[in-house]
Amino acid sequence: MSRFMTHLNNIYQLGLKELKSLWSDKVMLLLIIYAFTANIYSSAKGVSQELHNAPVAIVDQDRSQISMRLANSLTKPYFKTPDLLEPDEATQSLDRGYHSFSIIIPPSFQKDLIAGRKPTVQLNIDATVMSQAFIGSGYIESIFNNEINEYLNRTTEPATKSRINLVTHVRFNPNMTGFWFGGVIQVINNVTMLTIILVGAAYIREREHGTLEHLLAMPLVAAEIMISKIWANGLAVLIGASGGLVIIVKVLMQVPIIGSIPLFLLASAVYLFAAAAIGIFLGTLSKSMPQLGLLIFLTIIPLQMLSGGSTPQESMPEWVQNVMMATPTTYYVKLAQSILFRGAGMSIVWPEFLAMTGVGIVFFALSLARFRKSVIQGN
């Protein structure tokens, strides 16, 4: 028992040393604060997944009642008030990026419409604004069809009735607000990035300053050094993640969190163990900070892009899905979405907890073996 307490005391004291070193590194502290405050807000709000105030230009060559009705149907908050332009002006405006959509209504549009000749309305789209381009074209088509149908038939019902009555219920995000998920996903991405960076950099800094050899000359084992770095840097990231989730996502951005935040933080603690082990493993492969930065760059991007946070894994090739099942980030994303948005409890998410813990243990064992080989044996 005394030997076990000695190990715990060594891990505790080494962890305090790591926290003091982190506290003295003001640049790293500013990075942590920025990552879990301004970075979360700007990342969630800066990329719009909804159509909002899209600029539209209309070339009305008919000047009829229905053409004016179509122009007035494009209203806020989806579209700005349309600008009535001439054909040459509309082309130049689209080229210069002043408008995202340019609609050309041909002459005799109302006359041909009433006669049943199916006139063509030309819609030009600036596809450099991809998020608005794909969503906006569908909005415009739906709005115009409803307006024309109402004008011709004096009804708001679709011209072609469906054989079924489809009633849609949207759960967990009734308004389909994109930044709700963007804020939480950015918290997850920052946890991954900062944990790997902090732990990997701490290892490289120890080796470059020569203090790692001093530690190994003491009655310490490699596992104690690794665990101390994991819990100290993981604690700093966990505090930042909890503050970012509660203060920025829940309070400032007013994203409804219906699940248990303590359960999510428990999942984050388990994930930090696995991510920190990856950071140490990358540190043992690197000879300097620049090399570590390149390895982190090559590691973090696939973890963030292929874990299911940005794109559903079901949309990816099957071999990519199989490969990502061997990474802890995949399970962490599933846990975060299930707990925070669907309100899942431990009785539902325990398989992901178990899988993430198992993957973390494997990475820790690999990192420990590499640590002993690279430092203790001098390879």
Word description of this protein:
The protein is mainly α and 379 residues long. The chain has 15 helices and 4 strands. The chain has helices at 2-24, 26-35, 38-46, 65-73, 87-95, 109-114, 130-153, 178-209, 211-217, 222-252, 261-285, 289-305, 318-324, 328-341, 346-376; strands spanning 56-60, 83-84, 101-105, 122-125. Helix 8 (178-209) runs parallel beside helix 11 (261-285), helix 10 packs across helix 11 (261-285) and helix 11 runs parallel beside helix 15 (346-376). The two termini are 34 Å apart. Mean pLDDT is 83; it is low at 155-164.
Helix content: 55-70%
Main beta-sheet strand count, sense and barrel state: 4 strands, mixed
Give the helix/strand class. Answer: mainly alpha
Mean pLDDT: 83
Strand order of the largest sheet: 2-1-3-4
Strand content: under 5%
Quick tags:
15 helices; elongated; mainly alpha; 379 residues; 4 strands; single chain; abc type-2 transporter like fold; 2 domains; four-stranded mixed sheet
Helices and strands, with pairings:
Elements: H1 2-24, H2 26-35, H3 38-46, E1 56-60, H4 65-73, E2 83-84, H5 87-95, E3 101-105, H6 109-114, E4 122-125, H7 130-153, H8 178-209, H9 211-217, H10 222-252, H11 261-285, H12 289-305, H13 318-324, H14 328-341, H15 346-376
Parallel strand pairs: 1-2, 1-3
Antiparallel strand pairs: 3-4
Helix pairs in contact: 1-10, 3-8, 4-7, 8-10, 8-11, 8-12, 8-14, 10-11, 11-14, 11-15, 14-15
